From TrEMBL:
Compositional bias segments (type: Low complexity): 746-756
UniProt-annotated location(s): Cytoplasmic vesicle, Clathrin-coated vesicle membrane; Golgi apparatus
UniProt-recorded name of the protein: AP-3 complex subunit beta
Family annotation (InterPro entries): AP3_beta, AP3B1/2_C, AP3B_C, AP_beta, ARM-like, ARM-type_fold, Clathrin/coatomer_adapt-like_N
Primary localisation category: membrane
Pfam families referenced in this protein's UniProt entry, alphabetically: Adaptin_N, AP3B1_C, AP3B1_C_2
Length: 1143
């Protein structure tokens, strides 16, 4: 083409593709590693970093391993460029699980980004933290989600909702109360996008906690049309489950009004409550829409009990399906039912087929029967316009089987197209055979005649089966269907005998099976059909088809007057062709001969005996063992007089009782055929719109509907109480937000017990917006301070001070400031304060305050003379160490060699009767580190806080250890992280035992001596994200109280000494003070407060621990632990450790 221009079609195609790629990043996939990525990552220009990161992601997309760039990528996580930050987050999410140590180092950057002014950065940081699947960061992720759930940006709150399922998957075995509280807050959001994401989180985290929906059910229903499509699906299911669990099923729904048994029981249930059903209206609805009562019963069981339980009960209780234990029902006039139906009606016309089916499922289950017709047009519309036809047809099939008349007028919408797949064709055939009526059946059968000519013989066989189903449903057209099926049989027989085509045998067999099913309903009316089949038996060559015809002849051998006359000729013909028949035909000939003999009396009896004996004799020597076994079985089962062939034996034995064998033979060969009326029980039914309805088994995550009225009033009452407390706390927060600027009004050491749902047993990081909530019994604005005067801290051991200020004695200046604030522009004030408080730019109160009114005074003690006993850990037991026991305890001494070294006392004990020699401790990773040839090893090591310190200082080898001798050695170890173990190799007698030395975060501190004034001042400097709290229960003081030695001790001193001893025995900290309220009761420990201080070894950052006790002496105490630390990761992990050893 155009040779004068020197261009070809191929060159023009390449040129056009290049033009389309201009301005895109597609060229990175051609040769993404054509440049040196390392120098670009270290560049000071963001554009070069972006190019390098895009090339890394292109390599990841192609399956390449680029994890060796992890240290260089991590350094760019603090970049100010949004594009760089986004690409770094994508890279970190991919390799975080593989490079756990380095991923932990980026957590602090994520924490800083959570306070960024750009909501996109905050959302990216949260997504990255939630995507790092490490158990060590799970508490931090929970704190971040708690913070972002209150973010001013709806997009950030939406990301927080999507992060909840990831966190739940990370530690789903733990208590999920805190996650449920977060879901509750997000469900109460006013943004439709956040509500949709919260619904997805609810389904993953707490799908059975339906009481969370109670307070906001109406608002959720009204928000439903504005939620995104996939959120609408989940939220619709949740709201439906809540209605059923709260109020039960609707008495006017199709599940009850169409079934006489269910309806009568429902009427009895309502009679007890004085709400009877209008029987006249019920009669009118039955006329309008005929339903299959058996199918509806099975559907009710499957929806409520689940498919497995429904099958189990159906197999155990035969014929008791009508006796169901129905729960109390509700009416369609119920407010919750009515609003849910009204709010889901617009969803019926959604462009998303899944949304349409979800809304249709709600109307199908709880809508009044007269209103179900509104789902017909939307479903048919989406069927015509959607590509997911199979998904829609599977649900239509269930609707049609339960209420065939629902789609009976729209049968033309289910005609098969040539472009339909085989699965869709089969579904349409089954629907057509289900909804066919007397008026529409002629048109449907005419359509079926075209389907029979289809080249796909498998589809033709299904069409023949559909014709048989139509004849069974409508007996008045059975004769017409039988004529067509007989003609098809003779046609297929001639085709199969002349040429063997694929699928012809299946069509022939299916036609005979359809005839067999039709005959079974009324054999006497179709005796001529049986005769026609018998007369054409020699024309049918297919073994399976011949076996079916022989079965029909044997089953109905005594029906009518014509069939008994032709049976002898047919049996003689079969006996003559026995040796040339196939296996299944031979077995059926044996069965038919036995049936005929049992049903025959009179002059033909001798003839049938001879035929049976002849056939059995032939079968005895058949090459197939199944045929031989069947012959022996019949010979031993049939009475001797029936198998005898002589006339004398017959005359002498005919009147004799043939005994139990005769009864067995009649039950086996001449027994009644079981009815197929219970075929609906075997039909698998699942909730409309679910994946399980497509795959026809319970897909992962599928749950049936909750038990009706299973949402107890106690759960709702508890929910309402929590709601009232939350509203009260929000009101107080609103009142106190005007005085948040008064920095002197807050105490850094106070504890809070508010009605917030975040006051749980899980650790949280409280933002400043939470801290501004002051517990107060009055509505007036007041300030209470607990300022303690310590003039001579080092001179006195005990100080008594009076520091209470009543709320009613607020200064006039404070009230004046309040009036000035109220007069300002409220909208501007709230928007600005909300953002500033969330970002912790202006810290207010702390996150934990006193649950009771401040006492009038207190006693401060800084010396309890408590006993400190370090905990002994087992490093190597004698069974694994060949008689050597190695134990260790963390030392309180601080290493003088390096600040990152932890000093540990190791105890060696010989448990054998002979000496152990050459005992030493070595670094377990030393050999692998020396032999490693990883090119990025130095970069990997540079990211860790090594401070140029070795992993473990070498120790002297123990030459010999005598039997029973115990020896102590002091080692200094550098743990790369306070949660990751250190691998050790214990050498003894020339053998090496590998073990792990687990760190204790409490000994990554050194005591930091300070006064209480300095403690409170430092605590005020670390609010918001640097503060975390957790609650636990303390019981150890109860055992000490029962001890005789402590009988005369002061109980409050005993509890203080017990708690302090527990803390000091498990961590290397300094006891700052113990505050004891002066006005305490004789049996009340409420208000007891202990303060500890320490300093992180590696960073020298202060770490403050505050413990507040509430409760009585004789009962377990409710302990609230608070950590203030600039290193948030360290603080959270230390908080969990302190709560664990106090628990």
């Amino acid at each position: 083409m155009f040779p004068q221009f020197g261009a070809t079609a191929e060159s023009l195609s390449k040129a056009s593709s290049l033009v389309l790629r201009i301005g895109t990043d597609a060229h990175l996939y051609d040769d993404p590693d054509d440049v040196s990525i390392g120098p670009l990552l270290d560049s000071r220009y963001d554009s070069e970093k972006v190019d390098a990161l895009k090339r890394l992601l292109a390599l990841i997309a192609q399956g390449a391993d680029v994890s060796h760039f992890f240290p260089q990528v991590v350094k760019n996580v603090a970049s100010q460029s949004l594009e760089v930050k986004k690409l770094v987050y994508l890279y970190l999410l991919h390799y975080a699980e593989k490079r756990q140590n380095e991923a932990l180092l980026s957590i602090n950057c994520f924490q800083k980004d959570l306070s960024d002014t750009n909501p996109l950065v905050r959302a990216w940081a949260l997504r990255a933290m939630a995507g790092i699947c490490l158990h060590a960061v799970a508490p931090l992720v929970l704190a971040a989600i708690s913070k972002c759930a209150r973010d001013p940006s709806a997009y950030v709150r939406k990301c927080a909702a999507y992060a909840l399922p990831k966190l739940y998957d990370l530690h789903h075995d733990e208590d999920s109360t805190a996650l449920e509280e977060l879901v509750d807050i997000l469900l109460s959001d006013h943004s439709p996008g956040v509500v949709g994401a919260a619904a997805a989180a609810f389904k993953s985290v707490c799908p059975t906690s339906l009481f969370l929906i109670a307070k906001s059910f109406k608002r959720l229903c009204e928000t439903l049309p504005d939620v995104e499509e996939w959120g609408q699906i989940v939220l619709t299911e949740i709201l439906l489950r809540y209605v059923i669990a709260r109020h039960g099923l609707v008495k006017e729904s199709i599940l009850f009004s169409s079934n006489s048994a269910l309806h009568s029981q429902a009427g009895e249930n309502f009679a007890t409550s004085g709400d009877m059903l209008d029987h006249h209206h019920h009669h009118h609805s039955v006329v309008d829409m005929a339903c299959d009562s058996n199918m509806v019963t099975v559907m009710y069981k499957s929806y409520i009990e689940g498919q497995k339980e429904s099958f189990t009960q159906a197999g155990c209780a035969k014929g008791d399906d009508d006796k169901l234990d129905l729960p109390p029902l509700t009416s369609s006039t119920n407010d919750d039912v009515d609003i849910l139906l009204r709010c889901t009606s617009p969803l019926l016309w959604s462009h998303n087929s899944a949304v349409v089916l979800a809304a249709a499922g709600v109307h199908w289950i709880i809508a009044p029967r007269k209103e179900i017709e509104r789902i017909i047009k939307p479903i048919l519309f989406i069927l015509r316009s959607s590509q997911a036809s199979k998904y829609i047809l599977c649900n239509i099939l269930v609707f049609a089987k339960a209420a065939p008349s629902l789609f009976s007028l729209n049968y033309e919408d289910f005609f098969v197209f040539s472009s339909d797949s085989y699965q869709i064709k089969v579904l349409k055939l089954e629907i057509l055979s289900t909804i066919a009526t007397e008026s529409s059946l002629p048109i449907i059968l005419e359509e079926f005649q075209d389907y029979v000519k289809d080249p796909d013989r498998r589809f033709v066989a299904d069409t023949v089966a559909a014709i048989g189903l139509c004849a069974q449903r409508l007996p008045m057209v059975a004769s017409t269907c039988l004529e067509g099926l007989l003609g098809l049989i003779f046609h297929e027989s001639s085709i199969s005998s002349s040429s063997q085509l694929d699928g012809e045998a299946g069509v022939l067999v299916q036609a005979i099976m359809s005839i067999k099913a039709i005959i079974k309903h009324d054999p006497t009316s179709y005796d001529k059909v049986i005769v026609r089949l018998a007369c054409n038996l020699d024309r049918v060559k297919e073994p399976a088809a011949r076996a079916l015809i022989i079965w029909i002849i044997g089953e109905y051998c005594s029906v009518g007057q014509i069939i008994p006359r032709i049976v002898p000729s047919v049996l003689k013909y079969l006996a003559w062709t026995f040796n040339s028949e196939e296996l299944e035909t031979k077995l059926q000939i044996l069965n038919t001969a036995a049936k005929v003999l049992l049903c025959t009396e009179g002059e033909d009896l001798l003839t049938f005996r001879k035929i049976l004996s002849y056939v059995i004799e032939l079968a005895k020597y058949d090459s197939n063992y199944d045929v031989r076994d069947r012959a022996r079985f019949i010979l031993n089962l049939m009475p001797r007089n029936l198998t005898s062939t002589s006339e004398e034996e017959t005359t002498s034995c005919f009147l004799q009782n043939v005994g139990i064998h005769h009864e067995f033979a009649e039950n086996i060969f001449s027994g009644k055929i079981h009815s197929t009326a219970s075929s609906a029980k075997s039909f698998r039914i699942f909730l409309p719109g679910s994946l399980s309805q497509i795959v026809l088994h319970a897909a992962p995550g599928y749950e049936p509907l909750p038990k009706p009225c299973s949402l107890h009033a106690n759960d709702l009452k508890l929910r309402m109480e929590l709601d009232d407390e939350t509203k009260e706390s929000k009101k107080m927060a609103k009142d106190n937000s005007f005085g948040a600027g008064d920095h002197d009004a807050s105490s850094g050491s106070s504890f809070e017990e508010s009605g917030s749902v975040y006051d749980s047993h899980h650790s949280i990081i409280s933002s400043d917006s939470e801290g501004n909530e002051i517990t107060s019994e009055s509505n007036e604005i007041g300030h209470s301070s607990l300022e303690v005067m310590h003039d001579d801290w080092n001179k006195t051991l005990i100080d008594v001070s009076d520091a209470s200020v009543d709320n009613d004695q607020a200064s006039p200046s404070a009230k004046g400031n309040l009036s000035a604030l109220i007069s300002t522009d409220l909208a501007e004030l709230m928007s600005k304060s909300a953002l500033e408080s969330w970002l912790d730019e202006h810290p207010g109160l702390t996150s934990v305050q006193m649950s009771q009114q401040p006492p009038s005074g207190r006693i401060s003690i800084n010396n309890l003379d408590c006993t400190v006993t370090p905990k002994i850990h087992t490093l190597l037991d004698p069974t694994n160490g060949n008689g050597l026991r190695v134990e260790y305890a963390f030392s309180y001494e601080v290493s003088t060699i390096s600040p990152v070294m932890v000093q540990i006392e190791v105890f060696f004990e010989n448990c054998l009767s002979e000496s152990l020699v050459k005992i030493a401790l070595k670094d377990g990773e030393y050999t692998s580190r020396v032999d490693s040839s990883d090119p990025v090893l130095e970069e990997h090591e540079s990211l860790l806080p090594t401070d140029n310190a070795p992993s473990m200082l070498p120790t002297e080898e123990i030459a010999s250890l005598d039997p029973g001798q115990r020896l102590k050695k002091v080692i200094q170890v550098h743990f790369h992280h306070h949660l990751l173990p250190f691998k050790l190799a214990v050498l003894c007698n020339g053998k090496k035992n590998l073990t792990k030395l687990w760190p204790d975060i409490g000994y990554f501190l050194r005591p930091l001596s300070m006064s209480m004034d300095a403690f409170i001042e430092k605590e005020r400097q670390l609010p918001g994200m640097f503060e975390c709290t957790k609650r636990c229960t303390f019981k150890e003081h109860i055992d000490h109280e029962k001890d005789d030695s402590s009988f005369h001790s002061d109980k409050i001193i005993l509890i203080s000494r017990t708690i302090a001893s527990k803390v000091l025995s498990n961590s290397n900290v300094f006891l700052v003070s113990v505050d004891i309220p002066v006005s305490f009761n004789i049996d009340d420990a409420s208000g007891l407060c202990l303060r500890f201080s320490g300093e992180i070894l590696s960073s020298s950052k202060p770490c403050l621990i505050t413990i507040l006790a509430e409760g009585k002496f004789s009962e377990p105490l409710d302990i609230a632990v608070k950590i203030n630390c600039e290193d948030t990761v360290f603080g959270l992990n230390l908080l969990n450790r302190v709560a664990a050893f106090l628990q």
